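All the exercises in this workshop are built on plain-text protein records. The record below serves as our worked example for the rest of this section.
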Amino acid sequence: MIIGYLGKNSQFRFFCRLARGLPPAGAVRKATRRQGGYHPPMFSYRHAFHAGNHADVLKHTVLIAVLRHMVQKDAALTVFDTHAGAGLYRLDGDYAQTSAEAAEGFLKLVAAKPAEPFAPLLQDYLDLVAGFNKQGSHKVYPGSPFIIHQVIRERDRDKLKLFEIHPTDTKTLTANIAQLEAGRQIAILREDGFEGIKKFLPPPSRRALVFCDPSYELKTDYGRTVVMVADALQRFVTGTYAVWYPIIPRPEAHDLPKKLKTLANRAGKSWLGVTLTIKSSKLLQDDAGEVIRPGLPASGMFIINPPHTLKVGLQKAMPQLVELLKQDANATFTVESGG
């Protein structure tokens, strides 16, 4: 249902168009129709291929949980999204159907009939995404900009700053966000989020969430993520930092959460790490001897200065998530914390 947008006619029309299969008015869609991988050449990445996959389920479940806790305080909050993307995606569009990753993530979760009710964090995630669709429909999937805005939109004092450097995604993001008529609550910056965030820390309110989920299509993204968090902690040690990362057979991916944990410990700050694995990462062969790549088998979220309620919530949600999304016997999860 599109409850909550009736207060602004343009927002209502916006989501009605999406639910009917129409693009948002003014949205620019010039992306080359080619399947994006997790490590293709620069600027070929398109999150539209991966929208709603198991990594998004984990990423956005955690993001919503963190935000829900942070908006309980009256003080103003600034949220920074360092890699915003296009902001909104259609799961029945060419990109999503080419990869069909949502079928093993969000759509699989929606279709599931768990033995017990969904854990509160998962139910909150499913309810929020449902708000972008007609009842019974699951065509529209919100990216992090729209998820964040949905949580903070009733609080005029809160601000959202979106960084996106890809020219096509920036244009689409700008057109999508314009439909919300959010005014000065949302700012879009066509800048490198790794560097652009520096000038905003610390924010005037001294309360902020930095959400960082690069594509990691370039090996340097891993190192730049660590450098960004290290610099941000020096500027604003009390901020909350949430970093998503893929878990793949690559040293940089393996080392990233370890380096973030070291940064948190050196700063004397609490931290939480959660991972979701849905299948093995081993390469397989088909009957013709061709190599079958497994795609993304797992991902994680690392949060510095997490809400104290997050660990308990994830401990309830993650076993259920593994059970519902697993593709083989290697499916598992971890939740650890410290500081």
